[in-house]
Amino acid sequence: MSFFDTLKKEWLRKFLDRRVREGVIRRLIGKWLQAGVWEKGQLSYPEDGTPQGGVISPLLSNIYLHEVLDCWYVEEVKPRMKGKTFLVRFADDFILGFDLPLRDSVQVRQSRELKAVFGMDRAISGQLFLGLNTSKPPFNDVRVRRAVAHAIDKNIIWQRVFFGLGGAATGPVSRYIGPQYNRSVTKYEYSPQRANQLLDEAGLARGAGGMRVRLRLAVDGSSADFTRIADIVREQLSEVGIELTVESFDFNTWFDRVYVRRDYDISTGRRLTGPDAIFAMHREFHSTNTQPAQRNYYLYRSAEVDQAIEAGLVETDPAKRLQAAHRLQDMIARDVPNIFLMDTPQPNAYRSVFQGLDNSPWGAVRLDEVWMTGP
Asked: Could you list the mean pLDDT of each consecutive 10-residue stretch along the chain, which spans 375 residues?
């Protein structure tokens, strides 16, 4: 039994009423729908289905599925989802994809019907961070940036948001990328005392109520993880006298506010840190990438870092290129244009009946060699 054989003609006619009102075309479609089916020497006139072998069948089927599947997904499913989701359909075959937060992968791994795959061993690994707008006070002062880094307890985020999955980030490149990761970069251990000292040195004295400065945190509200992170960061920064107003937006509004207009103080962010670490750092931290809608929306500029990136990009000796990548990570970590929060693996989950699915470095899945072992 196939989709084309079970399509309800009554509903198809109702859908056609919304789209096709030309009498001649509708009469022609009516004749197609009334055509019989010749099978094993017998002629029958089924109540359901589209014409057997008819050239009109794919078109009618697409109209039907647009109404019962595509519109249902857009109007009923998508509004209920907190994370990102997509529908890909070709004729009567379709795939539904849903954002899988790391915290939910725990339940997925315990399921017999679903299989979770992580991309920790792949060349490209994700990272969550807070971008600091370095073009204006107070983050044009590296002491303030370092103070914020000391004021945030990443282990709390790791446990409360990610339930011990992934790991606290130390620099601009994820630990899961392999040898290109520099584990010896300058680190900022959680220390409210050191954060307060740096803020005092930067001239941000405590005022009424113990507050030093009021800042805005722009949150990409399409991610539940970012919302939870924002609540934790707001609480921790208040302990060192930084009052944080959390502004949550849908993705398009957040992108316009942060990437295009640069109207923010701190912003949530995510990145891929490979496959080549130097190329990834060029995209994120080179001063030529500070134009609207480009990745360096922190407006971070360092002639020294620019020069090191440019030299590293043209280095062909593998050993020297690796040294250049390690050196760059420490240079950027010392300048703290971002608060590097979490190194995250790339979790994908799918029904156990699928075979051949590959958890690619980009977090996407190739389907040309995928098959099913059951319904």
From this structure: 78 84 82 77 79 78 89 90 82 80 69 64 75 98 98 94 86 92 96 98 94 97 89 97 96 96 96 91 97 96 98 97 98 98 77 72 61 79
DSSP secondary structure string for all residues of 125-164: -EEEEEEE-TTSTTTTSHHHHHHHHHH--HHHHHHHTTTT
Question: How far, in Å, CA of 9 to CA of 28, rounded?
Answer: 15
Distance between start and end Cα atoms, the chain: 13
39 SS3 class: strand
Question: Which residue is it, tokens 């107070």?
Answer: 138
Q: Which of 76, 61, 63, 56 lies closest to 15, judged by CA?
A: 63
In whole angstroms, what is the distance from residue 131 CA to residue 153 CA? 16
The H helix count followed by the E strand count for the chain is 14, 14
Characterize the bridge pairing of strands 114-117 and 348-351. antiparallel
Strand partners, 323: none
Cβ burial of 232 (10 Å; 0-12, 13-18, 19+) is middle
Question: Are the C-beta atoms of residues 284 and 295 closer than 8 Å to each other?
Answer: yes
Contact 329, 345 (CB under 8 A): no
Q: Please report how many Cα atoms fall inside a 13 Å half-sphere around the Cα of residue 223, on the Cβ side.
A: 21
